[in-house]
Amino acid sequence: MTDRPLKQIHLAAHFPGVNNTTVWTDPASRSQIEFASFRHLAETAERGRFDFFFLAEGLRLREVNGLIHDLDVVGRPESITVLGALAAVTTHLGLAATVNATFNEPYELARRFASLDHLSGGRAAWNVVTSSDAFTGENFRRGGYLDRADRYTRAAEFVQLAREFWDGEDVRHSGPQFDVEGRLSVPRPPQGHPVVIQAGDSDEGREFAAAAADIIFSRHSTLAAGQAFHADVKRRLAAYGRKPDELKIMPGVTYVLGDTEDEATERAAEIRRAQVGPQTAIAFLEQIWGVDLSGHDPDGPLPAADPVVDSTLVQGRTRLGDPLEIAARWRAVAAEKKLTSRELVIEVTGRQSFIGTPATVAAQLDAYVQNDAADGFILVPHLTPGGLDDFVDQVVPLLQERGVFRTEYTGTTLRDHLGLPVPGRR
Q1: What distance lies between CA 405 and its chain's CA centroid?
Q2: Is the pTM of this model over 0.90?
Q3: Which among 156, 328, 332, 400 is most buried, taking Cβ atoms within 10 Å?
Q4: Could you give the C-alpha distances from 288 to 22, 66, 150, 308, in angstroms and in order?
């Protein structure tokens, strides 16, 4: 470290419920549909002076062997609709929605986010995601036509057009993905452009973030890995005429608190066992092996057979990589640590967690930011909707005492909170 001023930590709240994060069996777990759940988490985040509230979204219910996977969220309301309602009950908190650039159109998306930015007083953010999933595409007129190699080509062209619409330009564009001529029917948003978030650790994703995003939602498991990712992404910005602080790196993380280190460690293990119950463990194995494993013992060894490549047993989930390579890696970990199938899934699917007393967690978060492993964090709690209550009550005051997190909001827009400039007109 140098004698530079302390970096300020950015914090965001991710509404839980996607994948195996949420502990559905906990008595404190509440509805994923009722507005009261969204409001509670958003108001907690605003009480903690967080930068923004973040909603993920899927466009089709996931299936395993032709049946809806009932451990995922089913029936969650559309994200921008939820954020529009939250704009009325919050005053400073940023409002971020995931909207797919593959199955939407630039004009329509630009209009929706400009509207949210106006109605919230400049607090809107768009998390750009892409898809080449034909299963998801069946819900749309175009179907799954988009080749995987074209995902970022379309996304880059999409973001460019959205920014042109936000600038109030007469848009005349003919490109590989879009042929558009028109003008947005909504005035230029208060932030100039709503904040753009991108999620992805691939080389293509990093380059896209450097060119077009304000925040990158990343994943890394160690301080060293975070520092390597931070350095790699930040060095790419100069090629696009951008400064390092114009892109915020915010990994998605979990946390577990306890009165002692041992208590926190024990509680974290209990939470992971609850997150990955027997049925969830089997579902993860089926995603890799591509065969029906309903008869497999989750407390026994991994399946002996090799995975079926290009299986369609599991639909609607992101491909994790080559199944044969993943299975080989998992077998090596299971053999080395003598893990059962379920224990192996717990081991390999754990998101980076900060575990300990409130003082320990505050110190760990601060160390990541001060040592350039991140600019902040998107917290993914395991409970809906009260999963952030203890963090806001116990960790945030300690970060404030360290002088690395705001005690009050000093601006009104999300760009103010993030220290991002308002884009000039193009």
Answers
A1: 21
A2: yes
A3: 156
A4: 21, 16, 25, 8
